């Protein structure tokens, strides 16, 4: 299968604009003061379809400003919890798909599979059909091991994470977005370390680093025999070209 490149633009927190072939995928766009998404959507000759995803209703993942894109959005794909919010009810419901964990939605351009979270909402695995490119966006799925929490709560967080991780074993994706949150201190990359040991991905982009910690993978980060590009964006509007091969990991 021929190789291709996807252009990824960072939109803060867990927000990203991804150009794959002639499809635009916008994930968790809650704040875009420089209007990267709006400008991309106005370039109508540059793409065939645009989809806006929101993994859950937290303010730093879902904001109603994306309602202004309803004329050009092919579909809004939201985590199920957004249906219950006042912000969610403002959207044209005939253009919204709400997904619970472990559901499938597709049209002629993309296939979307949902997974559970360890917070609220869902994670998304999106296949762009024309190119075959596969993208996983974890939403707030992570091992939220907070320093200072009781031993009981930390164990509950571990059990919830491992239960969902079991459902992801063997998953393939060209690109995965996954939280590496600096507020977790020494546990910052605990979740992503476990994640990359059970999935087969071609590239990793870290997200949800609210403190802009400057995290970089250490020498012992990668599993034995595995290596792939890792990018931790720092500033709104940072861009990266990511090589993809349609679901086949780039070694």
From TrEMBL:
One of its GO terms (molecular function) is hydrolase activity. The keyword Hydrolase applies. The keyword Ligase does not apply. Keywords: Hydrolase. InterPro entries: RibonucZ/Hydroxyglut_hydro. Gene3D superfamilies: Ribonuclease Z/Hydroxyacylglutathione hydrolase-like. This is MBL fold metallo-hydrolase. It comes from Selenomonas ruminis.
């Amino acid at each position: 299968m021929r190789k291709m490149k996807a252009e990824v633009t960072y939109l803060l927190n867990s927000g990203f604009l991804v150009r794959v072939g002639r499809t635009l995928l916008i994930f968790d766009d809650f704040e875009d003061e420089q209007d990267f998404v709006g400008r991309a959507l106005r370039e109508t000759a540059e793409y065939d379809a645009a989809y806006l995803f929101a993994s859950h209703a937290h303010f730093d993942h879902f904001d109603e400003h994306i309602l202004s894109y309803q004329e050009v959005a092919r579909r809004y794909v939201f985590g199920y919890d957004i249906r219950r919010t006042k912000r969610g009810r403002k959207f044209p419901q005939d253009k919204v798909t709400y997904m619970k964990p472990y559901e499938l939605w597709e049209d002629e351009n993309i296939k979307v599979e949902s997974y559970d979270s360890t917070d609220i909402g869902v994670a998304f695995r999106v296949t762009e059909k024309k190119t075959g490119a596969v993208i996983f966006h974890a939403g707030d799925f992570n091992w939220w091991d907070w320093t200072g929490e009781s031993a009981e709560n930390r164990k509950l967080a571990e059990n919830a994470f491992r239960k969902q991780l079991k459902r992801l074993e063997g998953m393939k994706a060209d690109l995965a977005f996954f939280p590496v949150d600096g507020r977790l201190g020494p546990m910052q990359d605990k979740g992503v370390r476990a994640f990359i040991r059970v999935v087969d991905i071609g590239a990793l982009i870290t997200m949800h680093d609210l403190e802009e910690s400057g995290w970089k993978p250490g020498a012992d980060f990668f599993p034995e025999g595995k290596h792939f590009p890792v990018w931790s964006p720092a500033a709104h509007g940072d861009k990266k070209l990511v090589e993809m091969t349609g679901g086949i990991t780039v070694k």
